[in-house]
Structures are given as C-alpha cells and as structure tokens.
Design brief:
Alpha-Beta Plaits, 5-stranded antiparallel β-sheet, 4-stranded antiparallel β-sheet, alpha+beta, SH3 type barrels
C-alpha cells in the first residue's frame, strides 16, 4: 500500500468506528436522527475514499503487510455504512408509502437482500473470494434445504402472498370456508392467529389459510346480516303474516335499523307460509343475542296476532291433531293466556289468574299516541297485548316494548313515576289491571315483589344514557324492592 494513502485508510477506520458509536447512541426512539448519522458518516467516508483513490468495487491486495488489516477493515466499514444508509432510505420510503401492514414484511425482505448483497460484495471486493464458484455451491445447498424445508417455505411464501394481497388486516373478523371464524390477532411469516368467539386462539399455517375461501366480515364494516327462516300456519292472508313479522323486527332492540330489516315471503303450501327475516347486527359477536331476541319476539307477536307456528316439513300431523291443538289454545281467553305466559305471574294459582284476567279492561292506542309522560305515576298495571311501545327519554328513543311486556306497576305499588315517556309506535292494544284487583294478591308473595322490582330496574337500565348499567340496575332494584315491600307491609297491617 502506498504511504500517501495510509492516512486515508486510518481516517476511514476512525470514521467507521465513530459512525457506529454515534449511531448506537441515538437509540431506537430516534429513527430520523439515526438516518442523518448514517448518511453523514457514509458521505464522509465516500469522500475520503475518493480523495485517497481507493476503489471499493475492486479487489486490491495491500502492498504493505503492516497496513493490510487496516485496509480490509476500512473497506468493510464502508460497505457496512452503505448498507445502513440504504436500509434507512428504505424504511423512510415504506413509512411514507402509507401501507403499515406490508411495512414489516417488505422491510424484512429488503433488509435481507441488502445484507446478502453487502456480504457477497465484501467477500468479492475485500477478500477476493470467487463469487461464481461460491454461488454454484450455494445453489446446490439451497436445493437441498428447499426440499428439507418444503412445508416451512410454503408457509413463508403463502404469508408473503397474503400480506401483499391484503385480504385482511390485524383486527379483522374473518370466516373461512371450513367454518372456522375469528378475529385476526397476529400474523407472521409462518402462521396467522385467530381469536374465536369461544375465546380460543386458532393457529393457521399460512399455506393452509391461502388455500381456503375467506370472507372478511369486517369489510366494509362489521355489520353482519342474519337470515332467520320461519314457518307460519296460513290461517291469515300472507300480507298480514308479513306485516306481523315486520313488526317483530321493528320491536327488536338488538338489531340495527339502518339499513332497515326486511321480511320476504319465500314459499307457501297447504301447511305453511315460509318467511325469511333479514336483519343486521353491529358485530358478529352479537349474533346470538340478536337471534335469541328475534325468536322470542316471533313467538310473542304470533301469540298476540293469533298466528300459529307451523310444523316442520318432516313432521306429519293429522287434522285431528290440529283440531286438538286449536281447542287447547282456545280453552282459555286471550287475557288469561297472556297473563299465564308472563313469568312474573307464574307464582299465582289458576283461580287467581282467572280472577285477574276477569278484572282486566282493554285499551287501544293509535300510532303516535302518548301513553304516559316521563315521571307519570300510573294507577294501573298495563300488559301489552299487541303492537310496539317506544320508551323515550329526553326526546330520544331508548328501547321498545313488545307483546308480553308490561309497565305501570311502580305507580300503583310504590308511587314511583315512569323513568321513560311511553309512546305507541304502531296500533297498541293493552290490558289494564287496576290496583284494587291486584292488591289482594300481594299479601303472602314476597317473591312477586322481587320480580316486579327486577322488571322495573331492567326497564330503566335499557336507557343508553345511564353510565354504569350494572351498578345502576342493582341500586334501582334495591330501592324499588324496599318501596314495594313497604306497600306489602302497609297492606298486611291494614
């Protein structure tokens, strides 16, 4: 090595070591500062190389053995700083490109390519290793490793395809063609992790996931449609049945109203009208709750409208059985059947239910009629026979009541006003039972007070502006229970 370039070699080594030290001192929390350091030191080292006439892309054996180690290390430092500068620019490009999901994978791939290229360049231009022979030998080794790691490589390349294709992102809820579904919680080179509704983690190899049909439920949003098939005995005209089923969906609190739920008549024969209900929920996790509420409302609205659920096609039923079922259903009046279907009144005897039904009076409210104002203390218990009642607070609808629901018990039992204004959405039929008919039943049944207090507290907790629902529900139930029990004590002493 000529003596005149020895100083440049020493300066290159100093700059290389200083660049590494300063780069590490910046820390991972300052990526832009690190990039500036990388570019600055690489530029300075390149200028020194040019001034010293050192060519990094050519193998030059040193002339002085005493300087050989410094010459080799100088070239290595330059190649290392070149790789870091290129990687820094790549990271900035990936961030500015605005595709965070692909960023990690692309970054890893490009960094691997850069380091591999730098390693081969150092071997060829610094140590004079014949790269052609090395590549030929490594090709054979690569074939052997490829056969041994066939499944692993399949997962890796499938992961690359899934990442670049972007069928999902972390946090999406997906449904696979084999029935597996869940939310994406992690994705790496080899596998994708799903958190299922059962709160289990399913690990799917990327090669398996790439072969399955995939439905992304989270796109364009997580609104999820549910279809429920119902069979109704054709005792009424089909358009009447369709109207009742639409009322079912309109009275449901667990489904979304935009887009509006729909009802379709899909078939008819001598035994049934086939109806399908279409409705959406805000998340796949709410499917079970919404389906259960709709099924409950189908039963209640069918009972209130005089409709009957049809037998399944596999069930053969004779005319005698149909007559027996109809006779059994009509053996009690509509009021008594309604009272018997309400769990709160299950503690009453058959004679007490009959007497309670005989005292009930029928009232009808037109759509839009105000049944009670917020804070009103009603003097009678009102059981909804048919229709939908809207519970409103501060002008906003909080929930809806359907056939089988009741209200007003707080007023005539404990003098408690309604927590919501009540308004008829459709034509509403209610059966009204006065305090004088209900009072004789209160004496020896404290469990009735528990159920009435729970019903009152639940109705109030339906409001969406109550904050901590569980705490409010328990506090309200305790207060109502004490108030109702005081009425029981006063009644017993009187």
């Amino acid at each position: 090595m000529p003596q005149e370039i020895a100083s440049f070699v020493v300066l290159l080594n100093v700059l290389g070591i200083a660049g590494i030290v300063v780069w590490h001192l910046q820390g991972r929390s300052r990526p832009y500062a690190r990039l500036i350091v990388q570019i600055g030191f690489f530029t300075a080292m390149t200028i020194v190389l040019l001034l010293g006439g050192i060519v990094p892309f050519r193998f030059d054996p040193p002339h002085l053995e005493s300087m050989s180690a410094l010459f080799v290390s100088a070239k290595i430092f330059w190649w290392v700083h070149l790789s870091w500068a290129v990687i820094g620019f790549l990271r900035i490009y990936i961030v500015l490109d605005g595709r965070p999901r692909e960023a990690r994978l692309i970054q890893d791939l490009l960094i691997a390519v850069v380091y591999l290229g730098v390693a081969l360049s150092v071997m060829a231009f610094v140590f004079g290793v014949p790269i052609g022979t090395l590549l030929a030998t490594s090709g054979v080794i690569a074939v052997i490793l490829g056969l041994a790691l066939q499944n692993t490589l399949g997962d890796v390349f499938s992961g690359i395809a899934l990442t670049l294709g972007r069928p999902y992102v972390i946090g999406d809820w997906i449904l696979l063609s084999d029935g597996t579904e869940g939310r994406i919680v992690a994705s790496n080179w080899r596998s994708t992790h799903l958190l299922t509704a059962a709160h289990n983690i399913v690990v799917l190899p990327n090669s398996v996931l790439a072969k399955l049909g995939l439905t992304n439920i989270s796109r364009p949003d997580e609104n999820h449609q549910i279809t429920l098939s119902i069979r109704i005995v054709p005792t009424r005209m089909p358009h009447v049945i369709r109207g009742v089923m639409q009322t079912v969906l309109d009275s449901c609190n667990s489904i979304i109203k935009d887009p509006p739920p729909a009802v379709s008549l899909v078939g008819i024969d001598a035994s049934a009208v086939d109806v399908e209900l279409y409705f959406q929920v805000t998340s796949p996790l709410k499917r079970g709750v919404a389906r259960s509420e709709v099924i409950d409302l189908v039963y209640r609205h069918c009972k209130s409208s005089g409709l009957q659920l049809a037998m399944p096609l596999s069930k053969v039923i004779t005319a005698t059985e149909v007559m027996a079922q109809n006779a059994s259903a009509s053996s009690t009046g509509p009021v008594q059947s309604l009272i018997e279907a309400i769990p709160v009144f299950s503690v009453l005897t058959e004679e007490e239910v009959t007497a309670l039904a005989a005292s009930a009076t029928r009232r009808i409210f037109s759509p839009g009629d105000e049944i009670a104002k917020e804070g009103d203390s009603l003097a009678s218990l009102m059981i909804i026979r048919a229709g939908i009642v809207s519970m409103r607070r501060d002008g906003e609808e909080a929930a809806r009541l359907a056939p089988g629901d009741f209200f007003g018990e707080g007023g005539f039992l404990a003098g408690i006003g309604e927590s919501h204004a009540l308004q008829a959405v459709t034509r509403v039929t209610v059966y009204e039972i006065g305090k004088e008919a209900f009072a004789p039943l209160l004496g020896g049944r404290p469990e009735l007070a528990e159920d009435l207090a729970a019903n009152l507290a639940y109705r109030e907790a339906l409001s969406g502006n109550m904050g901590n629902h569980a705490m409010q529900h328990d506090r309200r139930r305790s207060y109502l229970l004490q108030a109702i029990r005081s009425v029981f004590r006063n009644h017993a002493h009187g």
